[in-house]
Protein 1
Amino acid sequence: MRELRNKNVIQGLLAEIKKKSLSLPHPLKIMEVCGTHTMVIHRYGLRNMLSQAGIEMLSGPGCPVCITPNEIHEAAIKLVTENKNFILTTFGDMTRVPTRKGSIQTTVPKKGSQVKIVYSPFESLNTAKNNPDKDVVIFGVGFETTIPAIAVTLKYAAQNNLKNFSLLSALWLIPPPLKAIVESKENQIQGFLYPGHVSAIIGAYPYHFIPEKYSIPGAITGFEPGDILMSISSIQNQIIKSKPKVDNTYTRVVKPNGNPAAVKVMGEMFQKKHSHWRGLGLIPNSGLKLKHEYKSFDAELKYKLNIKAKSQDLPGCRCGDVLQGIISPPDCPLYSNQCTPDSPQGPCMVSYEGACLAYFKYEDRDRD
Amino acid sequence: MNKISLEMGSGGKLMRDFIDKYIVNTFSNPFLNELADSALLPNNIGFTTDSYVVDPIFFPGGDIGSLSVNGTVNDLVVSGVKPEFLSLSLIIEEGLELDSIKKILKSVKNAAEEAEVLITTGDTKVVKQGQGDKIFINTAGVGSVIARPSPQKIRPGDKIIATGTLGEHSLAIMLAREEFGIETNAHSDCAPLNYLLPLWKKGPLWMRDVTRGGLATVLTELSDKLPYSIIIEEDKIPLSSPVQAASELLGIDPLYLACEGRALLVVAEEKAEAVLSEIRNNKKGKKAEIIGKIDDKTGKPGELLLSTLSGGLRLLEPLTSELLPRIC
Amino acid sequence: MCLGIPAKVIEIDENNQGKVDYLGTKVSTNFTLLEDVKPGDWVIVHAGFAISRLNEQEAQETLELIREYSKFTENIRDEK
């Protein structure tokens, strides 16, 4: 599918988008919900070209590192700094988030304990199997793309009665913050790029309320530059025809009813809970926790972490407004002053997908 | 911040700041202040040193022994110095198997022969178990200056050449440490760059080996000093399949992956094709490509820009902190 | 939050564990989330799990659609 990166293809799609922009609100504000889309846009230098074609891209809250409250990161740090013979397994970019206790990356574990970076939750499981004398926690962070994998992993752990394994969860659902965004009086988003791999799991129906109740167009989108441009073009068509819907330009992967088996295993292991989203506040039924029968695998209960998550940012940080697409990174007073990739003040500058880091690192330039 | 963090050794901005603030400030002199890969001293002597703390000590394509020779040799070559003599200092952790030492020393010997350098002096220390990670090696290298790099002669239109595929060393090390469930035939590109020495008379104005921080970090060090911008064409950057695959799987940018046997050259425009041919004639350089040029029409002076596969343009910054795999 | 790549299934065992191939690199993958996976199938792999299939026909249709755009660009260049 590498043709979807091809210069000619991209330029051709951009030309068509530009042509249609002439008869549409200018600029058209489109939110890419998913952090991976933010990465792709910046990596290929699309933002500036889209801006010239009449499209303003706004980065949304689909960045688990960005919206996970500080208190949960601090709990992870606490686990590995206060317990002996402890292995904290985590995905890569969770380790850079700055907290009042430093970051996981700069933390010094207690003697005999360590932080282990993993690519797959199964590596955490194997770590637990191979180290029966150590406590192993998986710092499980993600949206519906990752949650089924974590669910399967926990299910294996439960079936095999792996007593030294547990989950510190920061699991988030995509539809609830979208609902919060479209319901907000300050909403300026005129179209949504829906996350392709979340949609591969949950299908298209969870987004239907957006065009049906709020008349906002959108398209389920894959992760090549061509996918993003095809979706933007679809959004323009929906506006031109006054027929907002949930289009799908990622048909090679996403089916309208998603992956029922994945949804089923999520439901077997987890139940919904009200969660605090950094920058967005408390959103009902927007997170997940392990069901009661699996509580022995819940690290928060097992280690009595008593996490009181809030949505408060570090002083002055406007990550919340950036996440909702209300301002763009340079509008935050801390951006590029006190808040830089080397000394990030808030999550948007930490995560590789964070809107502020992506903007800073991949800042586009006009070719001409 | 009053303690040294691991980040300061990672090759990113924190390390550069540390060097500026504590090393240059303390020892400032015209030779040191260049912060070049080698110091070019009076009487046409070139001099450099490097320490090697790689983990694991044995990896596909090399080991700490071959690394300790090639790394230092290459720092001399890219500075216009013919490497001649090395020192070899070993700091060994109590309990390391003798077989490992023998293996490492054999690697040092083979690498030194290939790079045509003599190990002439050195030191051996043993530290208590737990106070040194198996073995640390320091090598210093000295040789005769055969050419003076002349970055001041760089002009718009001059070309950037990469001598081969990028990032394999870093990838091999990363996967040797943590497999991440990935199997590839990536192996370190650890090799001497002596074959580039004769080229100094034929066009190159500047050379660097692409070590810590990768292509992006090395070229920003150059672009920072120029009144022009540098534009790299993404579709010209040579990348092997394992690096392409692993970087997409793990979400790591190959422009920041280090090599230990690859160089970047800036060559005067009219001589670039000829230099490229010569590099390609050597089997170590057969995948060399012209990957970019010096520019005065695009971007601002001092910028390193990537013209992406899709025709967009993005600014490349130096590495800020250690690259880690992501799932997002 | 969606880093996933299309890869070809090489092997799968009775525990739904196996390997996929991506550009010659092999990745340990768990297939519990999909049904009836066979070697030769194309899947999307995220965090060591196959989360969806890649529909080859739809992929082909998408490619044909975008190839139309690359022709479009060439026309614009010719007109200049």
Note: The domain at 66-173+258-302 of chain A is CATH 3.40.50.11740 (Rossmann fold).
Protein 2
Amino acid sequence: MATATAEPRSVPATEGDGHKHKKNALSDGQGRLAWILLAPTLIIIAVVAGIPVVMSIRESFFQTNTGVDPNTGLIAGGETFVGLQNFTDIFAGLNPVQGNFGTMDRFWNAFLNTTFITIVCVIIETILGVAMALIMAKAFRGRGIVRAGILVPWAIPTIVSALMWKLIFDSSGVMNRILGREILWLADTGASFWAIVIADTWKTAAFIGLLTLAGLQTIPAEVYEAAKVDGATTWQQFVRITLPMVKPTLVVAVLFRTLDTLRMFDLPYGMIGAGKYRVETLSVFVYQETTQNRYGPAAAYAIILFIYVLLVAFVFVRVLGADVIGDSGVPKKKKKKKGDQESAGPPATALEMAGGAH
Amino acid sequence: MSTTTAEIREEHTSQEEVERLAHPKRPARQRIGVLASYVGMAAIVLYCIIPFYWMVVSSLRQPSEGRSTEFIPSPMSIENYQAVFSPVNNFGRSLINSLIVAGTTTILTLLFGIIGAYALARLRFRGKGAVLWLIMACSMFPLVVLLPPLLKMFSSTEPFTWFPYWINTYQSVIIPGLSFGLPLAVWNLTAFFRQLPVELEQAAMVDGCTPGVAFRKVILPLAAPGVFTTAIIVFIMAWNEFLLALTFLQDASRQTATVAISKFTGTSGFDTPYGTIMAAGVLVTVPLLVAVLIFQRRIVAGLTAGGVK
């Protein structure tokens, strides 16, 4: 079945270059129907995401007027076009704050916080997640219990987990009791950074594990058997077979986690609070600027964050080859399979089901 | 597995051999491996459960013992749960608000997501790749980008004076919420539709159905589990949403549960009422956990298929 649907998908419908592709009675020449069916979704996305993004870009070139209008004596309203000033101001150092990385402009402080929280969190989560997936793949029984357990952190609202960790990290809380120390986790110190990392890792590491497990389960057992016959050690099997074969799934999982962590808001806001420079992420900064009616700068920072996220996604897709869409993945993989004839074993169905059949 | 092979061979082998086959001697290394995997699994479960356990335990203490570090609450008390529903906190109201917001978001996303996803899964057309990328990008972009223009618009300040005042309305959260709910739904549903064999519709069409009827009478009933799973996932995402609700719902009577919890204040001024917060956290989480545990198989399938979040 996978062959029937996957094959024609890889060839554009209009291409008549003598390629023999199976006709799909259901979908041939139904481009117009497709667009009609997709129209509501696309219109909604354009309205709720597209237009606000454009408005945000416009906003980033303006500043809200403050103070008193000299002509009328009333409080000035409206906004003034300031060109790129909101963007250039981040280099002017108008608002220096003391953070983890010394004294610098509040924007750059938030930028570095976001970057480092993301890097540290994603690395730890990936290692833990892969370890969890390997353990789960080995297990014969009790996988259901583990899966249920893993879904607990996922289902808890992030803000609730932030408050939960706030209690755990309280200066007289249980974490300090276990460690036997008096660390001020929540007082905007260097430890706050790690408190955020721990809380985020707890909530999402297991999730990477879940996605990786789905990838692990598509690796045919014969590959390992062959490796064993050839005398490969467990470590060699892991590095030479498991990692390369699970890489497509893992890269996508890591990409999603990275983008998600880059826009982190709930955890620092709920645990440490707004305006705490050691853990202030770009999202928290934008939120604060917005609610203080500094719409122009807020929009500018949000746009920078947006571009940053796009760049990271681009790097993942281009450099690491993250196959996000999954649609092109099936035919691509199949071509590779055709190349080396021996491993024609479990075909594209396995790949297509990789997501579905847990 | 070993037992079944033993049963099959029973007629041909002696009792002694059956015994041996039923309990095959594993090499010591392998047995250690199995043991290690059980230990590992126990570790994973504990890792996931313990912080949540702490939340439950803390909610069951007496209100005055909010920061106690006893592992079992010594006089167990449900006073915190009663305090959650004291009129000051407006918590009951916020639960209803959450239900309205998350429910409406879920219904709207499913309504539009199902037909869109069906087109993406089944029909071939130019620009499909672009649409998939657009939807993907949409579910990944930072939500804060929406905040500055939308807050300005919804509070109908200067250039948007024509816009109705939407602060403290449900639609101010529901409509921007579609920006992450809809891509999530489309993504999950597309994966589910793709798993259904295309021959189903072809057979229906041979029997004289139009594509529309084939979709309604054949595919939709079969995709019901997928639709249901997607509904749960979107509902949980919408229920857990915090940033939009925090920004646009400022009035206590309109707040969703997540915002209400974050704004709990103690009766005694500045002391954080941890017991009450934890009790409210448990109340907000437990319905989700029950749903998740009942449908865990499906949800995991949905999450790995969608690959989102």
Note: Residues 115-324 of chain A form a domain with the MetI-like fold fold (CATH 1.10.3720.10).
Protein 3
Amino acid sequence: MLKFIIRRVLQAVLALFVLSILLFAWLRSLPGGVVSALLGERGTPETAAQLRAQLGLDDPIYVQYWRFLSRAVQGDFGISNGVYRGEPALDVFTQRFPATLELSLFAISLALILAIPLGYVAARRRGGPLDTGSVIFSLVGVAVPVFFLAYVLKYIFAVKLGWLPPSGRQTVGINATHITNMYVLDGLITREWDAAWDAFKHLILPTIALASIPFAIIFRITRAAVIDVMDEDYVRTARAKGLHAKTIRGRHVMRNALIPVVTIVGLQIGALLAGAVLTEKVFAFQGIGQALAIGFELRDYPVLQVLIMMAALIYIIVNLLVDIAYAVIDPRVRTK
Amino acid sequence: MTERSVSNTVGGAEAFRHGLGGRKKARIDSLAEAGALSEEQGVSLWRSAWRRLRRDPVFLIGLAITTVFVIIAIIAPWITPHDPAARLLITQVTPATPIPEPQPGFPLGGDNAGRDLLSRLIAGSRQTLIVGVMATLGGLLGGMILGTIAGGLGGAADTAVMRVVDVMLSIPSLLMAFSIAALFARPSQWTVILAIAIIQIPIFARLLRGSMMAQRHSDHVLAARALGVKRPAIVFRHMLPNSIGPVIVQGTLVLAVSIIDAAALSFLGLGNPNDAIPEWGQMLGKAQVFFNTYPHIAVYPALCIIVVALGFTLMGESLREALDPKSRR
């Protein structure tokens, strides 16, 4: 067990190391090099030369990499020149992360609540109209560009029907105290029910759009896993023993079928982050996804660098935790 | 629809063995093995796969959609009612009415530059196909180089290449495409193709490497080695041709993703800004400002993308199923 954890942690560290090299290489190959990327339009030959010396761009490449790495570890990623002009790039991440975290949690919860029961029912009635329909639905879901779905939802429910707010995270001017910066949670903590409800209404459409990505995948995995498990000998044995259908479903089928599903949830974090870039842009939702979208548009490299680094870091750590958790639950995982 | 659909299962423990990005990798690996197996059973597996596909409505629908799409893309210049770049309706474009209405001769109306929307959709099929195919071929070429180095040489080269490939697989791929596209000060059609091609490289590399590893101890490779055939010849003449099946399957799936990803790049302003030659992803990306007022100019290219991506996905998924020995129970 310990050996497994150590091996997995080492793997994650190695992944981070390779990632830091890729990020460093990315930064080095920016158009016009780091200097013009950092200075933007304000650059003159003098300031450029000054910055070159200041950044030590004339040093050997491994010295530069080491400097990049040690500054990154200390959280120094430079100054934003787009999203929040003049502020440290890391602040963009810390201020906006709670919003994206809240949205992602809502999206992944919605996907799980819908996809797991549907996947189970589809597998039990394999070949029936419900199964065929939901499989086609999930395949179509993969083919629809996320931002297009977001625009359609916004057009129908916000622009035409006016049921839900079209953009933002909370109505401007509403009386709300912000503690965690996860607005629904804040409203619940401070018992400002109006604020919580308002923030929740702002979350509904982005949540549906973002949930479409993990929904299709979780549905397919659940369905396939249930089909597989139902063929297993232990399920037949349980049935032959005369166990109650409910017991078989809970103890024998779902418990085993959910193993691949939970793995997928960890892996979906990455897809959610990319989806958040598109969804948050459509709904002007002030999270890191929107910051990334603006950053790509304005070529705000310091902000892009910190956000990409953090996104990859979160992704790697979440997957490390999921893997370790599962090694604890499922002994088969440990043996290689 | 019963047998096929999506039963390409990955058991929990199996997915774990692959570490980070487990499922993605396990999916690629099972496909790689499927291709290697087909060689052992000779033509029969291909033939039986075809026998299954011929009766599979999902495959036939996918094939029909993609065939129609490719034909339209080829004959596009001859069937567009108007010149897709000509601003024929420019007099009707005013600040109050930025999008010309549908009218006789222009069944779908015009775009915000007064160009015929129908002609642009038809002409756009060609560029969309080019972007998809070029990005897929680029990814395949890169993956082939890395996969051949890893699978053909083995040892330290294998370890080094696969470590990098695995890390690339563990980065959210669309986020990586955005980052690569953002590297270019002047985006064009080629930067879009390049960005999408690069994110496909690790998938093809792992696929080809897996396929080669699976063939390593198969009879035809052992026989070639016993005859004294040199290593490069074994790799290129005996191993690579046997990997073609999985590559075709993955290629059709990647094509669908490429077309959708190209639209996402355009949406973020990282796509080709020059719209003289239309492309669906670009049309959809540029239509975003009119979505709340004139949704139809976004809906048409979006529908085209959805239908074509669905066609390639249906075809790829049923091909995968037909070639996968696991699903032939």
Note: Chain B touches chain A through 61 residues (CB under 8 Å).
Protein 4
Amino acid sequence: MSRYSLLSSITNRLTGVVLSVGLLVLVYWLMAVAGGNRPYLQAHEILSSGFFKLIYAGLLVAFCYHLVAGIRHLVWDTGRGMERAQAKQSAGVVLAVTIVLAVALGYWLFVAAGRAS
Amino acid sequence: MKSLRSPLGRVAGLGSAKSGVHHWWLQRLSSIALVPLTVWFTVSLLSLPSLDHVTVVTWMAQSWTALLLILLVLVATCHSQLGVRVVVEDYVHNTGSRTLTLVILTFVHAFLAVAGVFAILKVAFGGAA
């Protein structure tokens, strides 16, 4: 297996595991919302700390990559794009789309919406 | 009998196409569903005017929001469980620790699914006001 396919495969797994950890954050937040106003305020304080901003940045990048790479896998499942040259090209496309998507979402989250603040 | 494979299957070079593909198929189904669900969740959450309790509860208590959130939590935990299972099976070589890790991860995922759905329903039915 060549380097790009090895790297894109392991990155897809790694980002998947990162997103699994993100599920913990999601459920913690949902439980805080269900807990009422005061528990939510306490959780909100924790969830808007600098440490969690780092986590959101990581989750955001992982989400973008896993989403785009996952769509690449679904295309593969239809039998298309399996040739070596096509696979190498789509690995590049996945990376490019991920970067654009992550920058756009990152701008929306951290600048425009001013969230996680 | 040396092999459990049917003679016909062996001659035709076929594997099982029944429960063997269950994991693979569920992983595809959940990934297809997660494309619109995660995009909807990200856009909706970022579109909220603020993240204070009243705003979030008002949003979450809407029927469509609650329904899609429940779907998101269930499908995402399912997809996550299937995914980390493969990762553990591939990288944890010791049989004992592999089984133990899989048991713990399955319990954690079941807990996350139930807790998530419970929280959404509680908010949807007005229990978090």
Note: The domain at 21-124 of chain B is CATH 1.20.1300.10 (3 helical TM bundles of succinate and fumarate reductases).
